[in-house]
Amino acid sequence: MKSINNISILGTSSDAGKSTVTFLIGRLLQNLGYKVVPFKAQNVSNNSYVAGDGSEIAIAQYFQAEVMELETSYLNNPILLKTGKNNSSQIIVKGKAVKDVNVREYFRDIDTLKPIVYDSFKKLKDINDIVIAEGAGSPVELNLMDKDLSNIFIASEFNTKIILVADIERSGVFASIWGTYNLLPKKLKKNVIGVIINKFRGDLSLFDNGIDIIEKKFNIPVIGVLPYIPLNLGFEDSQSILNYQQNISKVNTKKNPLIKVAVIQYPTMSNYNDFEPLLADENIYVEFVNHNKNLDSYDLVILSGSKATIEDLKWLKSVGLFNQLKNRKKAIFGICGGYQMMFENIIDNNNVEVTSKTKIKALGFFDDNIKFKKVKILKKDIFNIFNIKVKGFEMHCGISKKYPLYAKSNNMQGSFIHAIFDNDNFRDYIFKSINKNYKGFKYKKYKKDTISKFINSMEKHIDIKKVLKGII
Fold first, then answer.
1. Confidence band, pLDDT 50/70/90 cuts, at residue 14
2. What pLDDT was estimated at residue 246?
3. Residues 335, 462: one domain?
4. CA atoms 113, 114, 116, 120: torsion sign
5. Of 20, 226, 294, 358, which is most buried with the most CB atoms under 10 A?
6. Is 49 inside a domain boundary?
7. How far apart are CA 390 and CA 413, in angstroms?
8. More confident residue, 316 or 103
9. What is the DSSP string of 154-181?
10. What strands lie across the sheet with 331-335, from one edge to the other?
11. Are 434 and 457 found together in one domain?
């Protein structure tokens, strides 16, 4: 059997669609009988998930593996950075939080991370035919190329074949392709096997001349031109809320939604994937609120997860939402960081989120304090909360001795469990208590059907034979 090269999916810009193209190419190669696995050396995202081995990885790599029906571990994403206090980031290595670093420290110590990234990639390659390595941002930030783990390091060390992904919605698509291609190191430039044009709106035939220009003038094969099809699943980076907002108009043209939900979007909101089931639910209107808007018209307010719970609590107070929430009589539900904000006080004497010992008054719905511990709890399981069994995961440093998993006081409820709304029985519990006419839906089936429909639609526009020709 001929040797098969691994693949790097590199964007000509941030948010070009690398994560999506990674699982698309992966699934299509799987359909041809190859063992394929997604990988990203280093990700920057506050959206993370507890993998099958109990480690913490970025949601994008978890979702890619889920789409490809694979088990997950830290090998899929060995380095994760989560933005936090004082312009620093929490660095997660091999699935475990190590320390907080600023950008200068991170780049200074980058060489110590290369062996970890190399080893993770190699272990995946040893048990698979093809590793598909998603890049990060642009691969040709010239001042950072020697510090680039996800793009240049992987592509160079493993001699991967490269597929460029260009976002045509941004405009300047030809310049972005030409510039990225010609700024790549000479060795990597030779490994480019093609480009995928992503997020095309309208009649695809209008870009036929564009394909000719790229293939004849740039001498780069065009592997596909992908139509813009909203997925609203698996979003991961700083553009994700914008993507949700762009698609929300379609979601919220639901006919006569039964329930209006406000999700508080504070500055370091995390794990907004928790709300994907609500965006998909025809019974529910969802709106992200990032300013002091009157919340009286909403049947439910959700306090989401937070990467910097204390800072986001301060933000609630500074913009005026705190007083609204404290005086609210209608339902509130908190998840993880949002759940912690519903206690009497949050206490950080271990400098987990702050630089000096801190005690801050919270909403006071539950009669206990939250105390931060240095070691993060990471647990994926089936939990019994509110007398309901739900699948989900814990990922937090804050601890309540009195209410270690969940709490309820009148219309105020909360839990540490992420992915809680993925459970049909839990959504029924919450929303039928708000409106007895809530009908619910089968989210797991919806998700599977949506992904299959998306892949089937995109498959028509990807020339997988060109990919195979480039990697074999």
1. confident
2. 45
3. no
4. positive
5. 20
6. yes
7. 15
8. 316
9. HHHHTT-EEEEEEEGGGS-HHHHHHHHH
10. 284-289, 259-264, 300-303, 331-335, 412-415, 406-409
11. no
State the DSSP code for 304. -
Cα of first residue to Cα of last residue in the chain, in angstroms, is 10
Least confident of 2-6, 18-22, 233-237: 233-237
DSSP string, 1-64: ------EEEEESSTTSSHHHHHHHHHHHHHHTT--EEEE-SEEE-S-EEE-TTS-EEEHHHHHH
Q: What is the pLDDT of residue 231?
A: 84
Tally the domains of the chain. Answer: 2
Give me the residues paired with residue 448 across strands. none
Packing angle, helices 59-67 and 18-31, rounded to 10: 20
Catalytic residue among 291, 396, 397, 418: 418
The residue type at 2: K
- For residue 320, what is the domain's CATH number? 3.40.50.880
Extract the runs of DSSP E, i.e. beta strands, from 114-231: 130-134, 161-167, 192-200, 222-227
Domain membership of residue 145 (yes or no) is yes
φ/ψ region of 90 (left if φ > 0, alpha if ψ in -120 to 50, else beta) reads: beta
Whether 445 is covered by a domain: the verdict is no
Catalytic residue flag (residue 418): yes
In the predicted structure, residue 123 carries a pLDDT above the cut 90:
yes
Q: Is 336 a catalytic residue?
A: yes
Q: Which of 336, 396, 397, 461 is catalytic?
A: 336
pLDDT of residue 201: 93
pLDDT score at 236 = 62
Q: Compute the mean pLDDT over every residue in the chain, rounded to the nearest whole number.
A: 93
| Assigned domain for 2 exists | no
Helices 424-434 and 443-459 pack at an angle, to 10 degrees, of 120
State how beta strands 412-415 and 331-335 pair: parallel
The H or E element containing residue 89 is strand 89-93
Nearest CA to 66 out of 460, 366, 456, 455 is that of: 455
Residue whose entry in the numeric block shows the structure tokens 């493993």: 158
114 and 165 assigned to the same domain: yes
Kindly state the DSSP code that residue 326 receives in the 8-state scheme.
H
What are the structure tokens assigned to 175, written together? 């310049």
* Per-residue pLDDT tens digits for 59-98: 999 999 999 999 999 999 999 999 876 678 899 999 999 9
How far is Cα 381 from Cα 419, in angstroms, rounded to an integer? 11
DSSP string, 356-414: S-EEEE----EEEEEEEEEEEEEEEEEEEETTEEEEEEEEEEEE-SS-SSEEEETTEEE
Q: What is the CATH number of the domain that holds 221?
A: 3.40.50.300
Range of the domain at 467: 7-232+451-471
